[in-house]
Amino acid sequence: MSKVKIAFFDIDGTILEFGKPDITEKTRKALLGLKENGVKICIATGRPIINVPKFEGIDFDMIISFNGSLCMKGDEIIIEQAIPAEEVYRVINNAAGMGRPVGVATKSRIVTNGCDDALKEYFEVASLDATPSEEFENAIEEEVYQFMMGCERSEWDRVLEGTENVAIAAWWDCAIDIIPKGSGKGNAIKKVLEHFNFSEDEALAFGDGGNDVDMLQVVGTGVAMGNATDNVKAAANEVCGSVEEDGIFHYLKGKRLI
User: Fold this and answer.
1) Which PANTHER family does the record cross-reference, listed alphabetically (predicted)?
2) What is the predicted pLDDT for the residue at 127?
3) What is the 3-state secondary structure (H, E, C) of the chain?
4) What is the pLDDT of residue 244?
5) In a designed cystine with 249, which of 9, 26, 75, 137 is the match (CB 3.0 to 4.6 A)?
6) Domain extents for the chain?
7) Is 104:187 a contact under the CB 8 Å cutoff?
8) Which CATH number applies to 6-80+183-255?
9) Cα distance between residue 178 and residue 159, in whole Å
10) Euclidean distance between CA atoms 96 and 188, whole angstroms
11) Each residue of 220-253: b (16+ CB within 10 Å) or e?
């Protein structure tokens, strides 16, 4: 392994157990240990920016949110890519034709125009309220960075019908995120590496879901969690222990990175 200068971490199922409010002490030690050794640490999540949790004592050097549509270094915006307005309405209409409600995420809020079982479960993972909001029509007049909806793989073509500038990022088999085409965690990481003037070989990434595949493939060492899906493990260079087993801590210890 080349000298690691930067490490990227998904949140849910990677540094944070599903349904838990905080990271474990060993995960905290792992993140702080990297910082102490001069390694930059970055979040790369599908969560909207307002739903990215803060962990006491951990200061991330960069936060990639909305699956790569927005990247911030403190208050400085490094990457910003919203869904074109005409495509926002197209996706909403397509979803309505399928009988599917959607959630939309802007920089300042997350609202839905309805709720089904899959969308409710999706929102519960991130501790979000899936109750339909009267503010939905106002929210879609703002810049929308991501849709969230319950959707089976067989429905993907229908929801994207007539669109040209959006793509699907799926981390679960019953729900999807819809993001601007050309975003994604992998492309965002490439831009972050350019920003810091680091090479891919100097980067390390950890993930567990389908929306982490491109992220694991653009860094020198992509590590899948032990709880990752099979396609994620197949895309990774290595597999560590599960999030419940403090897999990241033990991996970094074993590689003498902390």
Assistant:
1) PHOSPHATASE YKRA-RELATED, PHOSPHOSERINE PHOSPHATASE
2) 75
3) CCCCCEEEECCECCCECCCCCCCCHHHHHHHHHHHHCCCEEEEECCCCHHHCCCCCCCCCCEEEEHHHCEEEECCEEEEECCCCHHHHHHHHHHHHHCCCCCEEECCCCEEECCCCHHHHHHHHHCCCCCCCCCCHHHHCCCCCCEEEEECCHHHHHHHHCCCCCEEEEEEECCEEEEEECCCCHHHHHHHHHHHHCCCHHHEEEEECCHHHHHHHHCCCEEEECCCCCHHHHHHCCEECCCCCCCHHHHHHHHCCCC
4) 98
5) 26
6) 6-80+183-255, 85-180
7) no
8) 3.40.50.1000
9) 9
10) 30
11) bbbbbbebbbeebbebbeebbebbeebbbbebbe
State the chain's mean pLDDT as an integer. Answer: 95
Confidence at residue 111, expressed as pLDDT on a 0 to 100 scale: 95
Residue 171 has pLDDT above 80, yes or no: no
Nearest to 13 by CA among 240, 185, 207: 207
Strands of 166-172's sheet, edge to edge? Answer: 110-112, 103-105, 146-150, 175-180, 166-172
Each residue's pLDDT tens digit, 112-161:
999 999 999 888 877 787 788 899 999 999 999 999 999 999 999 999 99
> Cα-atom radius of gyration of the chain, to the nearest Å?
18
Mean pLDDT along residues 44-72: 96
Instruction: Give 115: exposed, middle or buried? Use CB within 10 Å, 0-12, 13-18, 19+.
Output: middle
pTM: 0.94
Residue pointed to by tokens 């597999």: 239
